[in-house]
Sequence to fold (172 residues):
Amino acid sequence: MEKMGLKDTLNLAHQTLCKAGIDHALIGGLGLAMLGIHRATFDVDFLIDGENKTDTMNAMSSAGWTLAMETENVLHFDGKGRVDFLLANRPHSKQMLKEAEQTNFGIKNVKAEGIIGLKIQAYINDKDREFQDKADIKSIIDKTANLDWPQVKMYAELFGEWQFIESLRKKK
Fold:
């Protein structure tokens, strides 16, 4: 099966989720792009409510994607293009999805504060991601004028990372 480009993958995945009535918001590299932070990315990453896991699996499979990996918190699809889902199973991530903002492209995006929280969680869980995720967090802090610092602090403190985030804030 020939892979689609990133834009086509994004559009088809978004349409598939909309058709299935599954609330979703961009995160990852494309989520950063919606915040004005550009870096190379090869997949589409969405945050969805964990309660929609089965419906998402069914919708994506029906649309021609192949489930490549499934865990309690993540779904990875391949085939037409790479689409990853982070499952919001806890109150903080469910709130991130609820507060996601509509973009000019008609797709919701997790707010900057939420993306910072997800980036912290990602590098805590996988040390190989630490350098890139910390660079992404620094870019968000540098480019976002009115971050909700109490919210950022709440996410950072969940993982014992407030001191690091505060050091980036002071350098701004």
About this structure: The chain has a mean pLDDT of 95. Residues 66 and 78 are 5 Å apart (CA to CA). The beta strands are 24-27, 44-49, 66-70, 74-78, 83-88, 101-102, 108-109.
